[in-house]
């Protein structure tokens, strides 16, 4: 993906243990500790999700199911007035996130970053007791496990946890949490497979309006493999189906110029109906 490379060399006390890698994103704008051959490894999905946070955004952002923190670090690296919270229930991935925040390469971002080890699907008092307070955030982003349980399941339990839905109402649970922790007028962003659109729209329900759906296609003529959805808490605006984003415009693996900019923090995926930029 654009701007990502496996890095070697000194990383202070937080240098990854055997079985983990230290990877550079945004051409060295930030680094990520992540499992080498297990679990979920961050890529373009995380960068596209980060790109939905609008230019000039300030206030507080939460990434639900943050993994090692690629999406929120990408947002924080682009937006200097944003404080971010990585919410992750997997002890292994939460530890990767903490080690990521401790890297000397991320010292310029660390004061604005926090890790919360919690289950996104908690509800009511249980959610609040876990540290996810009501109306505490201006932005919420999420890349939920979007593979249905009947898909061929990976034998890697860490990867399965990141990729496979445990329940059929996953989007309802996650978007319920997003609606509770967002301030009125706050923006939620989701990246998922196109076949999840019905569940996502149902989860947005009356909590959110002004949903904008952007298909993400590999090349001209290809079906979408992802969709980006943004919506605003409390909005009554209508749903909008946006023009596609293309990953590639030729037969090779080279990304389009726009995708290169989105993947490296040089551009944002702007809503047609602008979101507020936070408090």
TrEMBL record:
PROSITE patterns the UniProt entry points to: N6_MTASE (PS00092)
Entry's Gene Ontology molecular function annotations: N-methyltransferase activity; nucleic acid binding; S-adenosylmethionine-dependent methyltransferase activity
Family annotation (SUPFAM superfamilies): S-adenosyl-L-methionine-dependent methyltransferases (SSF53335)
Domain Methyltransferase small: 47-209
UniProt KW keywords: Methyltransferase, S-adenosyl-L-methionine, Transferase
Pfam families in the record: MTS
Full protein name: Methyltransferase
Organism the protein comes from: Hoeflea olei
